[in-house]
Specification:
The chain has helices spanning 8-19, 51-58, 61-84, 101-116, 147-160, 271-285, 329-345, 352-356, 362-384; strands spanning 2-4, 25-28, 43-44, 90-98, 122-123, 135-144, 164-167, 171-174, 180-184, 187-191, 194-196, 212-223, 234-237, 243-250, 253-264, 293-302, 308-311, 319-323, 400-405, 410-416, 419-424, 435-437, 442-444, 451-452, 458-460. The chain is of the alpha+beta class and 472 residues long. The structure holds flavin-adenine dinucleotide and FE2/S2 (inorganic) cluster. The site of FE2/S2 (inorganic) cluster has 13 residues, from loops.
Length: 472
């Protein structure tokens, strides 16, 4: 029983299996929780921005109801575990609001979709936000958690049942037949059941790559002297750009987390400009000064909207994936644990069938075709746009990167901390040409979101190997 990825998905799956008497091993390329989970805003909420109206365009009423049931079940299980392990969390009103006319239309659409699906939302007017709001809905008694403390609690729970997490081991491939012979950076491992809890599946056997988009968004943490001076609700705007707020009490003090400005990974120009723009907005709308930290993370959207959680067809329920949480993976990852462990143990939850019984809708075909065209366009266009050979050019300035050279062998050149590195600009996953991310000083692939450090080391994403250095 091998689970790849020690984020919320992998750990919730492992704990459920361990409690049922199995002894799962979880490996992680980096550290437990070091992926999106540890960088999440971590609102465990059934009110999820514009999710229900989007689901309703792509799926039947039964599937939307099953989505809510999955989130409710995942939320309850996760919060029960935190209570059992004495990990504090806050109960809050979740709010979805708008300050623009077009955002207000989306709030109204979400109000309708929520009521159609039986979610007990309420109208909250202005809520506790200190700036004018056009419309807002809310859901009481949702939760905000500390994702790092949650990961620690899950690891402790897993270990108490004999399971284990091994950090610093990356999966690099697998045999095509069972038992799975899984190659890793620490050697080959044999597994009867293999769970890919890596966000984007690291094997391309689930056909998710044709319909996957990676979205990155940003969070700034502002110290606050008195938490009661800032909004207590967990809010998300449906305007463009979006804004997300929640408070966080930590051993290092109290903070207001301000997030938003999501965009497709490797698309949309300067990422630092997005961070600066959130700070400018926070400074003018909220009682905050300078952020103590800022960070960003990514999650995956499926063009078919409903997350893909379960067995890969044709693998006799022995190879599992969980992806497409669309930045709402806190309750969903816990539900993924219930779904996947249920498949393995023969105890699927009541909502499983309806969640997975998704037919093909016109919205799926349209969005998947647009994504295919976008991927094709970037595959070719990014090469065609390349400048003439780069040799002889001045290296990029500190903190900058550019792609140069010829379309067949593009080179990614960057200078960070005084060191200039030249790498193949071709992503080792499926050949996208990487783009420079100036906020995080990384090379990001616009096709499926793999990211690489300035020296080529793989950071995250479906790729399993580093960018090659160019020695010439
Ligand atoms: C900025 C931001 C804010 C968010 N806020 C919220 C929120 O408020 N509420 C909410 O519900 N959701 C939120 N989300 C979404 C939520 O955080 C994610 O959906 C969830 O954390 C995904 O968990 P995961 O375990 O599937 O993935 P991850 O936490 O990314 O775990 C995957 C793990 O797999 C490992 N891995 C990857 N490849 C390999 C390999 N080849 N070999 C070994 N290990 C590998 C990684 O190192 C990583 O630890 C947010 C997302 C973002 C980006
Ligand atoms: S992540 Fe798929 S090609 Fe780069």
């Amino acid at each position: 029983m091998l689970i790849v990825g020690a984020g919320l998905t992998g750990l919730c799956t492992a704990v459920r299996l361990a409690r049922a008497g199995l002894v799962p091993t979880v490996i992680d390329a980096r550290r437990a929780g070091s992926g999106t989970t540890g960088h999440s805003s971590a609102k465990v909420s059934l009110l999820q921005g514009s999710m229900l109206q989007r689901l309703a365009r792509h799926a039947s009423t039964e599937t939307v109801a099953a989505y809510i049931a999955a989130n409710r079940s995942g939320q309850e299980w996760l919060l029960d575990l935190l209570r059992e392990r004495d990990v504090p969390f806050d109960t809050r009103l979740a709010m979805t609001y708008a300050v623009t006319e077009s955002g207000a239309k989306d709030v109204e659409a979400e109000r309708q979709a929520s009521r159609d699906a039986g979610l007990e939302i309420i109208d909250v007017g202005q809520g506790d936000l200190p700036f004018p709001v056009l419309d807002a809905i809310g859901l009481p008694d949702q939760a905000q958690i500390d994702p790092v403390a949650t990961v620690r609690a899950l690891v402790a729970e897993l270990e108490s049942f004999g399971g284990r997490v091994i950090e610093g081991i990356r999966m690099t491939g697998s045999s095509f037949t069972r038992p799975w012979m899984v190659s890793t950076t620490a050697g080959e491992v044999r597994a009867e059941h293999l769970v890919l809890a890596t966000q984007a599946p690291v094997l391309d056997r689930s056909l998710d790559f044709a319909r996957i988009k990676a979205y990155r968004s940003y969070v700034l943490a502002y110290p606050v002297a008195d938490l009661l001076n800032v909004p207590q609700s967990m809010s998300l705007s449906l305007d463009d750009p979006t804004r997300s707020l929640r408070t966080a009490s930590t051993g290092e003090g109290d903070f207001l987390l301000v997030g938003g400005n999501g965009h497709e990974v490797g698309h949309g120009g300067s990422t630092q400009a997005r961070v600066d723009e959130i700070h400018a907005w926070a400074s003018s709308h909220l009682p905050v000064d300078e952020p103590a930290w800022s960070w960003s993370a990514q999650d995956y959207h499926l063009t078919t909207q409903v997350p893909h959680i379960g067995a890969v067809p044709g693998t006799a329920e022995r190879l599992f994936v969980a992806t497409g949480y669309d930045k709402w993976g806190m309750a969903l990852a816990s539900a993924a644990g219930e779904l996947i462990s249920g498949d393995i143990l023969g105890s699927a939850p009541a909502y499983a069938e309806a969640l997975r019984a998704k037919g093909i809708r016109t919205a799926d075909i349209t969005e998947t075709a647009a994504q295919g065209a976008s991927v094709g366009g970037r595959l070719v266009g990014d090469r065609v746009r390349l400048a003439a050979p780069g040799s002889g050019q001045t290296p990029p300035g500190e903190g900058a990167g550019r792609v140069e050279g010829n379309p067949v062998r593009p080179t990614a050149v960057s200078t960070v901390d005084g060191r200039t590195c030249a790498l193949s600009a071709v992503c080792t996953h499926l050949g996208g040409v990487v783009a420079w991310n100036d906020a995080e000083r990384s090379w990001d692939c616009p096709l499926h979101g793999s990211r690489f450090a300035p020296d080529g080391t793989l950071i995250e994403g479906p790729a399993t190997s580093d960018l090659e250095p160019v020695t010439e």
